[in-house]
Amino acid sequence: MIQLYIPLNFLGTLYREIKQSLADLSRMFVLMDQAREVADAPGAVPLQLQGQPELRFDDVQFAYDPARPILQGVSFTVPAGRTVAVVGASGAGKSTLARLLYRFYDVQAGRITIAGQDIRQVTQDSVRRAIGIVPQDTVLFNDTVAYNIAYGRPGATQAEVEAAARAARIHDFIQSTPQGYATKVGERGLKLSGGEKQRVAIARTLLKNPPILIFDEATSALDSHTERAIQQELSSAAQGKTTLVIAHRLSTVVDAHEILVMDAGRIVERGTHAALLAQGGRYAQMWALQQSAEHQ
Ligand code: ATP
C-alpha cells in the first residue's frame, strides 16, 4: 500500500506544481497584456506634482470591447487630499475607474487628469509611482513577507518595513510565524487569509507613501472585527491623501467628501451620505438594505 501511496503522492505534488506554474504563467500574460495596452506618448514627460493633487474624470467613455460600452460619460473630481467613494451594483464599472486611473487602459473619449495633467501626456511610470492601489484581491509574490512589503519601496530598511507592518496591524501576526519577516508567503508559501493579504497590501502602500490612493474593497465578506480593523487602517492611511474608494460596504463611505452611485457605466446619484439619504433614491435604498442585513 505504502509503495502505491508514494508514487500517487508524488503525482499529486507534481500535478499541483504544474497547475501552479500554469497559474503563474497565466498571471504573467495578464500583466503583459495590460502592459501592452498603453504606451507613452512621444515626448511624454513625468507627472509634475506639488503637494496633494486633484483628480478629475472628464466625460470619460470606455469599452473593453467596442461592441459593449462600459463607461458612458463619467465625470467627477476628487479634490486634493479628499476621499471620494464609488458604490453601485456589481458590474457597474467601479473597478474600471481604478484601472483607467492607473492607466492599464486608455480612455476612448474624454480625459483623466492628475493635477491638471492628462495622464496620456505624461509617462506611465510617473503616474504609477504617484498612485498606491490596495486591490480587491492582493497577489503576493512567492517570496518572503518582508520582500512583499518592501516591494512598495525597493531599498526600504527592515525598520521601515516593520513600521509599515505595524501601521497596517500585521506586525504581530508576522512575528508569530516561525520565521517572522523571512517567512515565505504566496501560493507556494504560507497561505494568508484575505484580510491578512489585504493588510500586507496596505503595509506595502503605506511604505510607498504615494500622494494618491485607490482602495478597491474586497467583495468577499470578512468577519466584522477584521473588517472594522481594516477600515480603520484604510481611513488612517487616507488622511490628507487624494483617495478613491471603491466600496462594497456602505459603512466605509459615510465620511467621504462625495459618494458616487454608479449603475451600468453612469453616475446616477452623487452627494454626501446625509444628502443622499435625504434624497431617498438608490443610495437610500441600498443603505436601508445593508442596515437590515447587518441587523438580522
Ligand atoms: P464589482 O463590484 O463586481 O467589482 P465593478 O462595478 O467594479 O464590479 P468592473 O470590474 O468595472 O465592475 O466591470 C464592469 C464591466 O466590465 C463588467 O460587465 C465586466 O464584465 C466588464 N469587464 C471587466 N474587465 C473586463 C475585461 N478585462 N475585458 C472585458 N470586459 C471586462
UniProtKB/TrEMBL annotation:
Localization (cell): Cell membrane
Gene Ontology CC annotations of this record: plasma membrane
Residue ranges of domain ABC transporter in the record: 55-289
GO MF entry, a single one: ABC-type transporter activity
GO biological process, one term: intracellular iron ion homeostasis
Top-level division of the source organism's lineage: Bacteria
Keyword Protein biosynthesis found: no
Protein's name in the database: Metal ABC transporter permease
